[in-house]
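B., you asked whether I could sanity-check this one before it goes into the benchmark set. Here's the sequence:
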Amino acid sequence: MFIQVFQGPVSDRQEARRGLDDWVERLAPGAEGWLGSTAGVTDDGTFIGIARFASSAAAQRNSGRALQGEWWSGMSKLFTGEVSFHDCSEVHAGRGGGSDSAGFVQVIQGRTTDLVRMRETMTVFEERFPHLRPDLIGYLVAVHDGEDGAFTQAAYFTSEDEARAAEAQQPAEAAEVPAEEMDLMRDLRYLDLHEPWLHSPR
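And here's what the prediction gave me:
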């Protein structure tokens, strides 16, 4: 899997959603290798989009389409500040990865001091506690190409209320593994999507 992340400030979340819906309606049918997208706007007006592709080549073909350029020309006008882009060739998926059935998506961005160990802690958690946190229905960790350990992590939950409640009730033994993972992260930024926009090929 290959992931493209783009984000920036917007003033009108409804216009941003219409822009994304337009892409899904008109461009998605011709986007070979597109696996799905997660997007939304945070409380502070930050738009974030996470597009999943089967490969880097598929993402590049999509970016090179004339229709894509036309669409982005309009979409880019909705941003009120700098838009940043991250290509991610290294992606780790758990519990099925992205899920269109999620009622809440929490995106975490930051840097890790030890990418190998961070991956190991994810594997350990799934092996030791496969049935814990049924509210967590999938997650993705995408490492930004050429950005020295920078990553975007997206966790898909059944609902925000269930996620907050389950986090508070998590057994101490199980909490140790995520705590170690958090210790490996720096410069964290949380982008909560209370109303995520989730799309996959029809």
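One thing to flag: Residues 13-27 form the longest helix (15 residues). Otherwise nothing jumped out at me.
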